Amino acid sequence: MRTPTEAGVVSGPAVADVDLRHHGDVEVRGEGDLVDLAVNVRAGTPPAWLKQCVADSLDGLAAYPDGRAARAAVAARHGVPPERVLLTSGAAEAFVLLARALRVRRPVVVHPQFTEPEAALRDAGHTVGRVLLRPSDGFRLDPGLVPDDADLVVIGNPTNPTSVLHRAADVVRLARPGRVLVVDEAFMDAVPGEREALAGRVDVPGLVVLRSLTKTWGLAGLRIGYVLAEPAVVAELSRAQPLWPVSSPALAAAEACVSPRALAEAGHVAHRVAAERRYLVDGLGQLPGVSVAGPAAGPFVLVRVADGLVVRERLRERGFAVRRGDTFPGLGARWLRVAVRDRGTTDAFLGALRGVLAGGP
């Protein structure tokens, strides 16, 4: 049996060794001529009907936001009572609320994953432990790696940046009385059928599920997400929010994005993304010295090359922005994250990457 240290469990101030605040938007900020493969927001969004919904809400801007209808719509979408729903200004706000409002002694974050949860915990004064999943294990979750005394555990599913979809049964094994289990499902609606989702489960003790509406629907600039949790946890997080934390246009978008029409469209998009991802992975597999973590399940893939930082810069010279991997705990300079796009964009990207790897100008 592996010991905790051998299994990749680290904790304490010494682990704050990467830029946890580096995100994909930095790769393209101020660089309008780059093809954006660094940000995981779906291209070509929001759709026209959603833009119109947001535009129609502007007539009510003189009134203070009323989140009751949107909260009820989200609750109905997941089959839970409204008391189990908290609307937030994007999933990022939810991480801050969890870090500030909950009284925990030993929080642990399962990495590699989105770095904002750990950053929020550290900003709130917590000492954060890390469980580092290994590429040799396919970055798959082993619940036995998480320390028994961890009273807050954060994991993504499917995980950013690895694109790994953990089995729901394995994630549930992390739950226990006295522990808060936070599952970031920001990309779950990009998984056909949302298999392995825990949103809507009420039988898992301490479960907190985070959802984002910014990825599939292209609402990163509007900031809207939500938390699904036990009513007592929702009430505690709500007390930490300011008054009117979600704007009226964001509330209108939330209600629209959980409508039957939107759910049907999201389902079609998930199947299309899966097909485009297979095309990208197949193309990457034909390039020498390139490997893809997986099997991938999200709208992005994690790629390993000999020198990711050099490859990233040379791709920029050819007009493509990809996300560096060395700012994710548990990865390093050999890793890059690439968003899934349409086949024309993918073909152009693969051609550029082929040229970089061949050492061409």
Report on this structure.
This protein is of the alpha/beta class and 361 residues long. The protein has 2 domains: 18-43 and 263-357, Aspartate Aminotransferase, domain 1 (Alpha-Beta Complex); 63-262, Aspartate Aminotransferase, domain 2. It is 32% helix and 16% strand. The chain contains 10 helices and 13 strands. The protein has helices at 48-57, 68-78, 90-101, 116-123, 168-172, 231-240, 248-257, 260-285, 308-317, 343-357; strands spanning 9-10, 35-37, 85-88, 107-111, 129-132, 152-156, 180-184, 207-212, 225-229, 291-292, 300-304, 320-324, 335-339. The strands form 2 sheets. Strands 1-5-4-6-7-8-9-3 form an 8-stranded mixed β-sheet, with helices on both faces. Strands 2-12-13-11-10 form a 5-stranded mixed β-sheet. Helix 2 runs parallel beside helix 7 (248-257). It is globular and about 60 Å long.
What is this entry, summarized?
The chain is of the alpha/beta class.
Secondary-structure element order, as H and E? EEHHEHEHEEHEEEHHHEEHEEH
Shape: globular
User: What Rg, in angstroms, do the CA atoms define?
Assistant: 20 Å
Strand segment count: 13
How would you name the oligomeric state of the polypeptide chains in this document?
Answer: single chain
CATH superfamily of the largest domain: Type I PLP-dependent aspartate aminotransferase-like (Major domain)
Q: What proportion of the residues is helical, as a percent range?
A: 25-40%
Under the CATH scheme, the architecture of the largest domain is 3-Layer(aba) Sandwich
CATH C-level category of the largest domain: Alpha Beta
Given helix and strand content, the structural type is: alpha/beta
- How many helical elements? 10
Number of domains: 2
